[in-house]
Every structure is written in C-alpha cells, then in structure tokens.
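Question (not urgent): is this output format expected?
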Amino acid sequence: MIGRQVIATNKAFTLEELYQFMQERWDPNEYNYFEMGDEVSPIYKGYIVLPATPRFLVIVYPKAAGGLFNKENKVVLTVTNTPEGYHESLSLTERDIFRGRHQNLIKTIAHGVSSEQERKGPAEEILQEYTAYMTQLLGMYGYLK
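Got this back:
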C-alpha cells in the first residue's frame, strides 16, 4: 500500500486555485463530489476532501516548490481517516463513487473487514483512481511537469 500519491505540476497552485480548477473540470457523476476540508471538519482545513470508504477519505492539496526537500510544484493525494458523521452528509452506500468498477466495495466492507484491510484494499484502489483522473485533468490543461 502506498497511501499517498504525488503529481508533479508546472504551476504552483494555491488551495483556492486547485479547488476552482476542480470545480470547473471535475466530473462529479463519475468521480463524486468533493468539499473543502473545513466544511467536513476543522481537522481537514487546508485540504480538498473526496470520499473513499466509510472509514477513509482522500484528501487533496497543492504543495509549492521551495525549501530543502521540496524541489517541485505538486498536487498530493493521500488517504486519511474519516471524521465521525461525515458520511451522513455524503452517503457512500447510496451513491458509491465507483459503483460500476467497485461493485463489491460496500459488500466487502459490510462483511467486516478490518480497518487495515479497508485502507490497503478499497481505499488504496480509490486513491489510485482519483490520482489517475487528476493526472488526466492536469495533463489536458497543460499543468503536468
């Protein structure tokens, strides 16, 4: 399991610019809706939040180049824990984000997989799909490095 994906970009996005980019181009019918993190929980202020599984979310944030360890602009996607009550407002069971491709996701989770199995399995798969889609969008608009 990787749990974190990095997309190198040729632009230093701010959080607001990345959010606007996603609002204008993201397909919510195929890849679900997203929110600013502070709408989900104060813990996620400074992130864009996408649902993954009942126990995990995918957070998205830009990181500008600078400093000793960050040599390039990037967009980071990573799996994190879901705050209590989040899925009451964005129901995963009613509107599975990848229903066509992950038909067994809800069934698998409903049959009692551990948190670790959920993170390494379904949450990681969803992270990979979000990353592929974000990479495609950034590439279509000339933002990949």
